[in-house]
Specification:
By secondary structure, the protein is α/β, with parallel strands linked by helices. The protein has 3 domains: 192 residues, FAD/NAD(P)-binding domain (3-Layer(bba) Sandwich), CATH 3.50.50.60; 133 residues, 3-Layer(bba) Sandwich (FAD/NAD(P)-binding domain); 85 residues. 20% of the residues lie in helices and 34% in strands. The chain contains 7 helices and 27 strands. The strands form 7 sheets. Strands 1, 2, 5, 6, 7, 8 and 19 form a 7-stranded mixed β-sheet that branches. The chain has a 5-stranded parallel β-sheet with strand order 10-17-11-12-13. A 5-stranded mixed β-sheet has the order 22-20-27-24-25, with helices on one face. α3 packs parallel to α4. The longest helix has 19 residues. The chain is globular, with a radius of gyration of 22 Å.
Length: 412
């Protein structure tokens, strides 16, 4: 088995991983990026719709165009890329990372690791919906891959369960390809995707969005023949007598993403709400050599944000690998009222910081408060769009004098 020593090892070749590897190599660190697929880009390669790059590149791009830009940055940085490389084990001593790729097994011994493995879709089995298990049930990502990569229609009459962004976009794509989209069902009283996607993907094409509705049962033997749709109460419980049969041959699931952290879960504490590793403002975990980036930290709304966090993690990992990252006293960020997702988990004195906050319910008007030091008013705060608070050096210095910083979002 081959043994390699590197300064920075990046796991994952999506937007966060490519940006991290480019930043680490650009900072002068010997960098290797591992990607288990045959190509870089991750899910971007099948996202042929526009809407990417507005923040990072100041122009609207499709997913493959955004990926192409990042690959160009990566190629110019000097980082080494290994595709078809699957990480089998990550051990804290050393640290050591075992990976399998076409050339065989390699044990990497890096000084710093950036974990940018992204997120996976929640599968149908996790929903525990009664009924048979026929063909015709797909996650939104799989349906998107069938259509946009392989040119295959998943069916002729579809229902979308969940109004996440990929589900909304797939409703439009299926409609444009001639598939009848009977409805988009959402168990919550508000849509799960960005408002612009609700308008551009559903309203503009007359596709019905049924809020407080879900699937109670699936029907069919060899192929899906229909579903039973029920209305739910505020707690998500089906209302008696509200069930109705809806004929369809395709059910597309857009029911959330789960950060992919199975290999690092035994090593560092995971945030119970973000489902990603707890990190400080440097995106550094409890293990000082391990950094988190992108959707493996928490599920973000925009790929521009994912790439930005990847670049920050890569630059910080390079500083650590070269002995330029001094230890600092972390100041915990504590969830208060109406705070669901929160990144980072700790502030670091003197470290430029953006705090990302996701609320659990829509608030027409809200006040965001950090430790009583920062208080900002926001209009139209929604669970689908993270609130971003950029901390000035003066505000950061004042917050870091506190034993902990309570983050709250209050109505009004």
């Amino acid at each position: 088995m081959k043994v390699r020593r590197v300064e920075v090892l990046v796991v994952g070749g999506g937007a966060a991983g490519m940006a991290a590897a480019a930043a680490a190599a650009g900072a002068g660190a010997e960098t290797v990026l591992l990607e288990r697929e045959g190509n870089l880009g991750g899910v971007l390669e099948q996202c042929i719709h526009p809407g990417f790059g507005l923040h990072r590149y100041r122009e609207e791009l499709t997913g493959p165009e955004f990926s192409h830009r990042l690959r160009g940055e990566l190629a110019g940085s000097g980082a080494e890329v290994l595709t078809e490389a699957t990480v089998l084990e990550l051990a804290p001593r050393g640290p050591r990372l075992l990976a399998a790729h076409p050339q065989g097994l390699t044990e990497f011994r890096p000084r710093a690791v950036v974990w940018a493995a992204g997120a996976r879709e929640r599968p149908f089995g996790a929903l525990r919906i009664p009924g048979t298990r026929p063909a015709g049930i797909y996650t939104a990502g799989l349906a998107q891959r069938l259509l946009d990569i392989h040119g295959l229609l998943p069916g002729r009459r579809a229902v979308i369960l969940g109004s996440g962004d990929i589900g909304l976009i797939m409703a439009r794509r299926l409609h444009l390809e001639g598939v009848e989209v009977a409805a988009v069902l959402e168990i919550k009283p508000f849509p799960g995707g960005l408002l612009r996607n609700v308008v551009q993907c559903l309203s503009d094409f007359g596709i019905p969005l049924l809020l407080r509705h879900t699937v109670a049962e699936v029907h069919g033997r060899e192929r899906l023949s229909g579903i039973t749709v029920v209305e739910v109460d505020e707690a998500g419980r089906p209302l008696p007598g509200s069930g109705k049969f809806l004929a369809c041959d395709t059910l597309v699931l857009s029911v959330g993403l789960i950060p992919e952290n199975r290999l690092i879960e035994p090593l560092v504490p995971l945030d119970p709400w973000n489902r990603g590793p707890q990190v400080n403002a440097r995106l550094q975990t409890e293990l000082p050599w391990l950094f988190g980036a992108g959707n493996s930290l928490a599920v973000f709304d925009l790929v521009d944000t994912v790439a930005e966090l990847g670049a920050r993690a890569g630059a910080a990992a390079a500083r650590y690998a070269r002995g330029e990252l001094s230890p600092a006293r972390p100041v915990p960020l504590v969830r208060g009222e109406n705070v669901l997702h929160l990144v980072p988990s700790f502030l670091v004195p003197g470290e430029p910081t953006t705090v990302y906050i996701r609320v659990p319910r829509p608030l027409p008007q809200a006040r965001v408060s950090l430790g009583g030091v920062i208080s900002k008013n926001h209009l139209g705060v929604r669970p689908t769009e993270m609130v971003e608070i950029n901390l000035s050096p003066e505000a950061l210095a004042e917050l870091c004098r506190l034993p902990e910083v309570r983050v709250e979002v209050t109505p009004g």
